[in-house]
Amino acid sequence: MRIAKVIVDVPANSINQTFDYLIPEKFLDILKVGMRVTVPFGPRKIMGFVVGKAEESTFKSLREIEQVLDVTPVLTEELLHLGEWVAKDTVSLYITALQAMLPQVLKAQYKKELLRNTDASLSQELEHLFAGRDVIAYEEFEGASVSYYQLQKAVQDGDLVVKYLVHSKITKKYVTMVQPAREGYLLEEALQDLSKNAMKQRELLGYFIENPQPIEKKLLLKKFQTTSSTIRTLIDKSLIETTQVEVYRDPHQQQFHKTTALPLTEEQEQAITPIKQNIANDEHDVFLVHGVTGSGKTELYLQAIQDVIMKGQEAIVLVPEIALTPQMVNRFKGRFGSKVAVMHSALSAGEKYDEWRRIHQKEVQVVVGARSAIFAPFENLGIIIIDEEHEATYKQEDQPRYHARDVAIQRGKTHHCPVVLGSATPTLESFARAQKGVYKLATLRKRTNDKEMPPVEIVDMRAELHAGNRSMFSRTLMDKMENCLSKGEQIVLLLNRRGYSTFVMCRDCGHVKECPHCDIALTYHKNFNHLKCHYCSYEEPMPTNCPECNSDLIRYFGTGTQRVEEALTKLLPEAGIIRMDVDTTRRKGSHETLLRKFANKEASILLGTQMIAKGLDFENVTLVGVLTADSMLHLPDFRSSEKTFQLLTQVSGRAGRHELTGEVIVQTYTPDHYSIELASEYDFEGFYKKEMATRKTFQYPPFFFLALITVSHTNKVTAVQTTNHIVQQLLQHVSNNTVVLGPSPSPVPRIKDRYRYQCMIKYKNEPQLRDMISSITEQFKEATQKGDLLITVDMQPHHLM
Ligand SMILES: Nc1ncnc2c1ncn2[C@@H]1O[C@H](COP(=O)(O)OP(=O)(O)OP(=O)(O)O)[C@@H](O)[C@H]1O
Ligand SMILES: [Zn+2]
Ligand SMILES: [Zn+2]
Q: What does the entry list as the binding residues for Zn(2+) 1 (predicted)?
């Protein structure tokens, strides 16, 4: 077929269509659907994906494909279709959806090199091209008169390897291996003939006569204290040969203990049976496993995956980014060993690419990863698992704004395989679907070791104030901490910081320092004595006097982890504190290091933000303290109660998981709030009922779907007018029971000097909504292309901030 249908990489444009290009003769055999190409587009050359081929085109005078970037397709047919679906569902561009599926390295055009992979002769033209070198730039090949066929053939035969370079470092890694080129007796003959002076050569030959298997060149040189020239000489005599072998950078090289399946509890057995049936019968259902922390959900996933592997199929396991700790990864590696690839954002681009390629090359059967691992290029999926399904990180907050759960279900349908959602605190959406029978519900009420959940005590911080305690620790918490330390046990302290950072205020006039470019208070950073904007990175030194009234009583407020740490160090100087927040975990590997220290009991207190609430399992932790349970409750976000309930439940689950019994202290200024009360009783179903009633009253999910359109512009009037225009048009087309709200300022009304207004749509059934929104935004195409106007559409806003 002579015509390629190409999706081009021009995201600024609102182009969502394919373009026809002519396939030049030399690419006719090699070009496949799912490969990346470069094509001329206007005056430029750009990257594109081949999404189809055809015999004919309705267009005349087509331009030609310029280059083929891949030797094998990077996207399967299934992923191409899935991309189309994601684009439609999230009202975004097809190209953006396709790029979301690939590792960073493959998203851009990159430099290539050709690597010689054999010491045997290549074709004359290729030998000429390499001219004695092992590596040449790909451009040299393009500039030479060597045919593409020769390259293809050499690559297919394994004589040449195409190597991708992004920033020089992010590439495949190779090692040179040395091995005998002749059979043992021939080597022995050669050894006889060698001059007695050729000591090193003799030693090497002697070694290979004894050890015919390949050895890494570096090791060999070290072993015999010799240089490459010795090896070269023996290669020239055709006695030994070298090959380049690819090594994967394994970011999880630590030891893992091999584990085997545990006999399941009755509850686990009941939960897993229908999942196993799904697997056995190639059926698709969505299962919601609602199980308290420590009830053995992970063991259940492992055993379901075991079935999938036995069937020769593949598994995707999604876990929240911050739960991708070595503890979690080791459980999968411990059970399935090298069959597991791990994908999370702490990996370097090169490491991510390596893991992706292990999946692509079918070298693994299981991938454990964060959100984007849902696009793993497996072709024979047997199960998809989403652990902690309630986590907000499964929703991408950038184009394409997809939810991994929706993508999982879409893939599950295509592959006829089960999708398993697991959580101790499912989202209201999922639980409601399970109640209606859309999802199959399995409940695990007991911890596997039959331990009760630790008792939770709520402390009213207002009463503390009245009693004259102005510190951030209640008397109860102090007592319990001292007691705990005296017994040599450990403590986890959670500072729920979201929406409650350290801002600077004048005590005399009440002036709060705000970012000059955004309508938001600046945050105080103690290390540099600086104020910083979390939205635009604007910085300024901490003022010594109030810019409004010149008073010197300007101070920072709020409870940052640093302040808690300082206060704790004063109160409990002997304790030893490990602080975990964005500042202390920025460096790669620091997360692991801190946790290891705590596990080794190098400190008694682990103090941190949300990131410590998940999945951690330390046997010596007997006390969990939550410093301010309600800091999140008052955010303008319809999920704030739900998030509070989830967080409290998760963090409570960290105490007393083993022999020692644990307890939990929750400090709050709103002790009567239902999400705090019910979380302290571990009453999920009670919370569900109460919260559902609220959602119904205020017309929020799961009773209504939401869509959020945000308009931003440097000119406030334009922003308002555009939003208003969108609102008016929608009102003309939507059905009667759909609510269209706006224009109203966004919760942060100005970011980076751009004014932000929004339109919110609440609907129950609006099949045409996506098309409506597309055609409305299309009207502003010109204004958005000029770059001044920005319209973003979120078909499933997770939080409204
Ligand atoms: N059938 C079983 N018999 C004995 N021990 C089990 C069984 N299933 C799981 N366990 C053990 O119980 C502990 C808790 O199990 P697991 O971590 O799977 O629970 P979970 O529900 O995933 O917990 P969390 O929600 O806190 O992550 C683990 O130490 C696990 O090895
Ligand atoms: Zn002042
Ligand atoms: Zn700012």
A: 506, 509, 546, 549
Q: Which domain holds residue 33?
A: 3-107
ipTM, two decimals, is 0.94
Do 99 and 115 have their domain in common?
A: no
Whole-structure pTM value: 0.81
Question: Residue 300 CA: which ligand 1 atom is closest?
Answer: 18
**Cα–Cα separations (whole angstroms), residue 123 to 152, 159, 160, 235, 522:** 12, 10, 11, 19, 65
Asked whether the bond before 43 is cis by omega within 30 degrees of 0, the reply is no
Protein residue whose Cα sits closest to atom 8 of ligand 1: 296
Residue pLDDT, tens place only, 274-323: 999 999 999 999 999 999 988 999 999 999 999 999 999 999 999 987 67
* 750 Cα: distance to centroid of ligand 3 (angstroms): 9
> Could you tell me if 100 and 150 lie in one domain?
no
Is 287 inside any structural domain?
yes
Is 759 annotated among the ligand-binding residues? Answer: no
752: its two tokens: 């980076």
Measured in degrees and rounded to the nearest 5, phi and psi for residue 572 equal -125, 70
Q: Looking at the domain assignment, is residue 421 inside a domain? A: yes
Which CATH number does the domain housing residue 741 bear?
Answer: 3.30.70.600
Taking the C-alpha atoms of residue 36 and residue 42, their distance in angstroms, rounded to an integer, is 18
Q: What is the mean pLDDT of residues 43-51?
A: 89
Q: Which residues pair with 291 in a beta bridge?
A: 444
Q: Which of 666, 694, 722 is the last residue of a domain?
A: 694
Into how many domains does the chain fold?
Answer: 5
Residues 265, 266, 267, CA angle at the centre, nearest 5°?
90
**Ligand 3 centroid from CA 541, angstroms:** 14
Instruction: Tell me what pLDDT residue 332 has.
Output: 93
Q: Binding site annotation covers 549?
A: yes
CATH number for the domain harbouring residue 422 = 3.40.50.300
**In testing the pocket of ligand 1, which one of 301, 448, 624 has its CB within 8 Å of the most ligand atoms?**
448
Measured from the CB, is residue 264 less than 6 Å from ligand 1? yes
What is the tens place of the pLDDT at every residue in 221-233?
Answer: 888 888 888 888 8
- What's the gap in Å between 528 CA and the centre of ligand 3? 18
Nearest in space to 402 (alpha carbons), one of 305, 318, 525: 318
